Amino acid sequence: MLNVRSSFTESVLDSVQQGQVRDEMDLPPSEEKVFDALDAVRGNKAGGKNGILPELVKCCGANLSEYFLELFHLVWRDECARLIVRLLRSSRYAMA
Known about the structure:
- With 96 residues, the protein is mainly α.
- It has a domain at 28-89.
- The chain has helices at 10-15, 31-39, 54-59, 61-89.
- Helix 2 (31-39) packs across helix 4 (61-89).
């Protein structure tokens, strides 16, 4: 389904009510958000593909939050940069 061409009408898109813009969504995650997310990890679950148990993440969360924060900021920056490059290369946003 995803690889099937679709069509749309600009007027229909223009008629869709837009939600309020939340500028804070453009910012990388804060230390508080990372710490809260680590604190919210639920235990008694199976480890993921990497085999890391949620209990380990929760137990070491305070010590690991600084490293997770740095990792998330690296991913945030790199992925944002890739997205910008893709947008600039696409025909809709291509610079003449």
